[in-house]
């Protein structure tokens, strides 16, 4: 079976990439499957693009193979785009998705419905040894609810209500999320993914 390596340790992302590539008979490998000791990549960039490039390029450099990386996050208009690139560590390093959601609700406590617009952003970077890194961006518009709902997905999905939907992303069937999500929009732009398939 053909394979693609994604430089992530996020199980939620891995599941979504697996679902997408399954129909092409392509197996998704992540850093969770690599036995070799790999350094913890520090996300020191100031943009999604910079962080996606850091993750993809460092692993491509070490393993000498093509690598895909995903840097993503939630941008809330009432918070001037926060948590943005800090979405994974919004409530602090090592805190859970629930902690991040609790902090987001607290920050938006006084913000009325109608002013809680937000978008998910996903930037994919493809690093191929010896070639210039390329980027693909996808976005998904919506608003932040007032309490967590649903058990599917990960991260802020229980609080994010996509435009034209009544339910949160975590209440939608995963196949529905995969049709409308920021990640799926970015993946669909990734015409050159065939270049990074092994086997
Ligand atoms: O509800 C959500 N649905 C999504 O579809 C989604 N995509 C991203 N996010 C949030 O943004 C952070 C990414 O940060 P991030 O790109 O640094 O990833 P990460 O640190 O979790 O894993 P890695 O890929 O870096 O190993 C994640 O942790 C989540 O909090 C999402 N939340
Ligand atoms: Mg990260």
Automatic annotation (TrEMBL):
The Enzyme Commission number assigned here is 3.6.1.66
Q: Which Pfam families match?
A: Ham1p_like
Per the entry, which co-factors are needed?
Mg(2+)
Gene3D superfamilies assigned: 3.90.950.10
Give the binding site residues for substrate: 8-13, 72, 154-157, 177, 182-183
Q: Which residues bind Mg(2+)?
A: 42, 71
Q: One MF term from GO for this chain?
A: ITP diphosphatase activity
Which reactions does this protein catalyse?
dITP + H2O = dIMP + diphosphate + H(+); ITP + H2O = IMP + diphosphate + H(+); XTP + H2O = XMP + diphosphate + H(+)
Any idea which UniProt keywords this protein has? Hydrolase, Magnesium, Metal-binding, Nucleotide metabolism, Nucleotide-binding
Tell me yes or no: is Cell membrane among this UniProt entry's keywords: no
How many cofactors are bound and how? Binds 1 Mg(2+) ion per subunit.
Where, by residue number, is the active site?
A: 71
Q: Which InterPro entries match?
A: dITP/XTP_pyrophosphatase, ITPase-like_fam, RdgB/HAM1
User: What is the similarity comment for this entry?
Assistant: Belongs to the HAM1 NTPase family.
Record text on subunit structure and interactions: Homodimer.
**Protein name in the entry:** dITP/XTP pyrophosphatase
Q: Which organism is it from?
A: Oceanobacillus luteolus
